[in-house]
Structure formats: structure tokens, C-alpha cells
Amino acid sequence: MQSQDVAPRHAPATAAPVGAEQAEAALVEHYPRLVRLAYLVLPPGPGRSRRVLTAHALAQRALPRGRKRPAVLPAQAAGRTDDPGYAYLRGRVVRAALEAARPRTGLPRLSQLPPPLPLVWGLRLFPRSGGADALALDQRLSALSAPARAAYVLRGLEQLSDRDVREVLEAAGVDDPGGALASAKSVPAEPGLLASPEFDPCALQARPTDLARRRQHARAALAAAAALAVCGVLVALPGGGWGPDGAAAPVYAENPAAEAALDPGRLTRVSPTAWQTSARTDFSVWPARGPLTGDTALLRRALAVWARPGGTVRISATPGTATGGPAGPPQLLYAGEVDTARVVLLYDGLRVARYAEPRDGTRGAALDFARVDGATGAGASALVLGRADGNVRYLTAPWVRKAAQRDLTKPQAPARALAMTDGVTAPLASPALRAGACTSWTVLQLTAGPSGTQVVGDLGELVPAHLTTGRPGAPGELTGAARLRTWAPFACSLAAERSAGIRSVNAWAYAEQPLPDGSGDGAWVCTRAETWRGDGTAALAQFRTPGGATGAVVAKATDVPACGPRDPHVLAGVLWKSAGGHWYLLAAGGPGTASVAATGGVTASARGPLLVAGATRGAQAELAGTLADGERIAGLH
Question: What totals of helices (H) and strands (E) does the chain contain, helices first?
Fold first, then answer.
């Protein structure tokens, strides 16, 4: 269950004193938000579990001592909140978090000692893992100073004005509030992400600590001596103390299957020629590739981190993908250096896991998961090895003979050949990393032996999405001038499907409609995105006027069968303004639509799949259609 941390509503400022009872009531009501505030201001260095506990400790110690009325602070007026108790506690939490983040020199005074943490025995607690956007924001915030982080959070999470932010920082003892505010503005505002579960230290995941060692109470003295010896070895190791498991957490299971899954010597390695004789075209026949497949230490770290990711490991997963360890020894797909990282790709029959660590250590290790159950053919034709500098590199299936890149928005431009070395492509532009206006959309075109040519696109996940075109239930590969022209105006709509666990996207040109002013025909296309997990599918009806560079999304629905193999029908409409200034309702159904009717703001009907009716600006209408067999369909919305 996610915690609720709704901020107090805004009202004129008040400078009334705050009593202990009022502060206690504010703490009870707004505790999750105060803990989130402390968590975001604290530095990420000590690890997420300790950061969570420290945030709770700071919020719990924000109450005034004794029953006396605390002095009125300038920060109470900041934020224009009608709850001075909350404003008072917020100021104390910010001050305490900044003090905790300040580097120490010499012996601290009693007031500077860190607060005692809440007691949690046998568990490590941390917020749920976030997506790429949340991870990127956390990294950007970690690069800021503590006062700048506080300013960013006060502006984004608390929605305070710049003047109020300065008042809170001044009351918290910040020497240069203006400089902190300027630094905070260098990071793009993401209020939605700050309020997301990824930064909620009250909605936590729990993992056990070292259970095996805790069972050995009878041998406590020997365990302590062993621990001291291990610590001495770790201090002597380079790079901050690598152990054989790198960034993994301590071992907590003594299970033969689990231990086998951690043994790099038991990794499944498929013969390089297995795919040539197998009837399967999935990841199970991919051979192990890459120059580091014999690096036992790297493979051991990858397996250990997958089974027990430590608190500093960045974890991401496509929606609906489990992040637990493998049930047994997984299959090795790749191990090698990609740009500035060492990368290992592993497959356990249901998921692909990508482990990446910097070349010079394990700090900053990342673990990404993608669900691939049922993947075959084009769905198992490529995996993302890494992204850097706006580009992406792929590892292609062993049956891929040639690779090329093409701009999906320019169907007339030829595909450009892409070099491959042992299945690894040269870098190509990744639309998943691009911000701002969409002017191009680069995709990967693969030529394979048994399955011809396929086109896949990077949507920000490990497995690229398979792009097709044609009637639902019988789509075709994206080859040939006509099919490329179908996709071109709607390529940029793929941005709406980033990081959504998309397996494939099909574009179906289901109707062309003569415009009432005689200026040409409008094109109707339905794009449907299927997911790996099954639910979360999205159907978009898009309309493009003659000569228009891009299409416009006029209707969108999720988790509906329309425009898909189970229901290969669609009906959508749009209000359109002619060059002469007249407004019309245009509606179109797919093949097999016998009649279309509109009710509400526009009342009209027509035989066949097309409807044109005069309308007024802003009119709203409900669409309904009848198929040739008498079945009724509703408009997509």
C-alpha cells in the first residue's frame, strides 16, 4: 500500500505561535510528506536503507522538546500554508537534513551528533525501484549540494515560491540561499517524479540481511574474528574494497539451486551452431558472445548482484517483470565491454537481465530486467547492449545477416548499412534518449535468413519493439515503399509508448476519407501497442490531412480489444476546420462498417464506414457504428 502524503492546501501566511499539541497533530497528519522531504534532501551516499532510516529519524525528532510553545520562526510563514504546525516541522526537518548532509571536521558537538536511527533487525528497507526517469533525476540531485537539493525539493514537492524557498533556507542556516536556488534551477523541474513511489520512504520493499550469520549465535566469537579478518582484507583491496561478489548484498540463503545459480561455472552456454539445426528462433538458441565470456570474476559479480542486489545497485524493470534471482543457472548471452562499461546479458527462460558496471570498479552498478516469455522470431532478434551519448548499441540474433538504420519519418530515404562485429552493431541514434521536438525516428532494420526483414525500434527498454503494418491479425513486416509511407506520419507517436513494456506496435491504415471542401483525402490510421505482460495495451486512432507531415491522435484507449486481432474493427471521429473556416465532424470506421451515427452535440448518420456532418467549434458527439453482421461498435475514446 502506498503512503498518502498530500500537502496542506495554500492560504495567506500566518505568524501565529505553534504549540506542542499543534506540532504533534501536524506530524501525525503529514508524517509521510515530511519523511519524503528529508529523504530527498539527504545525500544518497550511505545507501538507500540507511537513508530511509535517517529520514524517518529526522522527521520523528522534528517535534519541539517539552510542552512549551516554540519560538516563531520566519519559515513558518513560508509556503502560505494554513497549517503553521506543518510549516514549523518542515523548517526543522530541512535544517536537520542539511545538518546531516554537512561534512564533519573534527569532533562534533552533542547537537551535531546524528540522530539515533529506528531499530530494524534483520531487514534492509528501501523504496521500490524506479524507471529510467526516476533514476536519472536521482543522479542529477546527487550531484547538487545539500542546500541546492533542499531548494529543488521545496520548489518541486512543496510548490513554494522562490521568495519562500529563500526564507526556509535562511531559517535553516544556509549561508547562500540565492546560490542554492540558482543551482536547483539547473535541474529540470519534475514535481510528478518527486511525488512518485520511487521517492517514497514510507512505501518500502524489504530484503533480509545476513540470515546465515545470524543463525550462528553459538559461534559468535569465531564469527567476530572472521569478520575482522575479512575487513582487513577488504581495506587492502584496490578500488574501495572489491569482494568477489562486487556490489552484491550479503549471502542469505543456503539452497543448492540458489548456490548453483551463483556459480559462473554452471552457466548455460549454447553452441554457436545450435540455432542452425534447431526449430526454435528464440533466446534459448543464442550462443554466448563477447570477449569477456571467460572472465569468471565478472560473471560471478553479475550473478551475485542479480540474486542479491545491494543498496547502491540501480535496478529497473519493464512493467510486470519480476526482479528476483534466477531459479537455477541462467544462460549466458553476452559478456564484454560496451562504451565505458562492462556488460553481461543473461537469460533465465522468462527474463533477460542486463548487468553493467563501470570499467574501473563496481560502484554505480546497474541491473535491468525485461520480460521475454514467448519471444520468438522478430521478438528475439535483438537486445539493447547499452546507451551512451544519445546512441544505442544492439546485440543481434545469430541468424541476423545484415543490419541497417533508417529514419521512419522519411520513407523515401534508403536504409543505411550498419556495421556488425560478432553480432554487436555500431551505435545508432536512439529516439528513447531524445528530448524536445520529434523531427526524426531512427529504427533498426534487420535482415535474417529464415524470417526475412524486420524493423524494431528502441523504446527505452532492453528488448526493442517489433514494428509492423497491416490489418490486425495478419500484419506484415515494415518493408516496401507503401508500408513505410503508412508509418511515416505517425512515427513520432511512438514516444507515448516509451518504457511501457511494449512488445510490438502495428499501424493499420483503415480508411481514407474525402474532405468536404474538396482539398483531398484524409488518412485514418490505428496504431496498437501490445505489451509483454498482456494488459496495458494501447490503441490510438490518428488522422492526417492531405500534405500533413504528421498525424494527430484523435482517440486513445487502453486495455480494449479494438484495433487488435480479437476485434479487428475501429471507429473514431474528429472535429475538422476547412480552409474556408467551416467546422465539420469527420468519422470513419474500418472495413466491414455498414453505418455510422453521431449523437449529442452533432446529430447525423450515414450508410457505409464514413460520416461527414456540419458542426460547431467545440461540439462533442458520441459515435456508434453497425457492422455488416449487425454487431454494434462504439467510437474509440
Answer: 14, 29
Whole-number pLDDT of residue 251 = 57
Question: Of 533, 80, 11, 130, which Cα lies nearest the Cα of 320?
Answer: 533
Q: Would you give the DSSP letter of residue 313? A: -
The partner residues of 614 in beta bridges, in order of sequence, read 584
pLDDT in tens, 119-157: 555 566 656 655 667 777 888 888 889 999 999 999 988
CA atoms within 13 A on the CB side of 488: 19
Q: Which residue has the cell 549561508?
A: 175
- Beta pairing partners, 16: none
Q: How far apart are CA 263 and CA 261, in angstroms?
A: 6
What is the C-alpha to C-alpha distance for residues 308 and 301, in angstroms, rounded to an integer? Answer: 10
Render 3-18 in DSSP notation, one character per residue.
PP-PPPPB-S------
Residue 412 to residue 389: CA distance in whole angstroms: 27
Contact 181, 151 (CB under 8 A): yes
Enter the DSSP assignment of 42: S
* CA atoms of 572 and 586, how far apart (whole Å): 9
pLDDT of residue 206: 59
Task: Report the predicted TM-score, pTM, of the whole model to 2 decimal places.
Answer: 0.63
Nearest residue to 314 (alpha-carbon basis) of 2, 43, 44: 44
Are 454 and 471 in contact by the 8 Å Cβ rule? The answer is no
Give the residue, 368 or 30, on which the prediction is more confident. Answer: 368
Instruction: Give the three cell numbers for residue 124.
Output: 534492509
Backbone angles phi, psi at 189, to 5 degrees: -65, 130
In eight-state DSSP terms, residue 69 is P
Rounded to 10°, the helix 20-41/84-101 angle is 40
- Cα–Cα distances in angstroms (integers) from residue 247 to residues 134, 138, 211, in the given order: 21, 19, 18
Q: Return the half-sphere exposure (C-beta side, CA atoms, 13 A cut-off) of residue 448.
A: 26
Place of cell 512549551: 68
> What is the b/e burial string over 285-296, where b = at least 16 CB atoms within 10 angstroms of the residue's CB?
bbbbbbebbebe
pLDDT for 511-535, tens place per residue?
Answer: 999 999 998 999 999 999 999 999 9
Tell me what the mean pLDDT of segment 573-577 comes to: 94
Mean pLDDT of 579-597: 95
Question: Scanning the structure block, which residue is given the C-alpha cell 540558482?
Answer: 182
State the DSSP code for 248.
B
Alpha-carbon distance values, 478 to 102, 144, 435, 614 (Å): 57, 45, 26, 37
User: What is the pLDDT, as a whole number, of residue 261?
Assistant: 81
* Contacts (Cβ under 8 Å, ≥6 apart) of 72: 15, 16, 17, 18
**Any idea of the CA torsion for 222, 224, 227, 232, to the nearest 10 degrees?**
-100
Alpha-carbon distance 78 to 112, whole Å?
26
User: 363, 462, 373, 358: which is closest to 132 by C-alpha?
Assistant: 462
Find the range with the poorest average confidence among 103-117, 134-148, 283-297, 600-614: 103-117
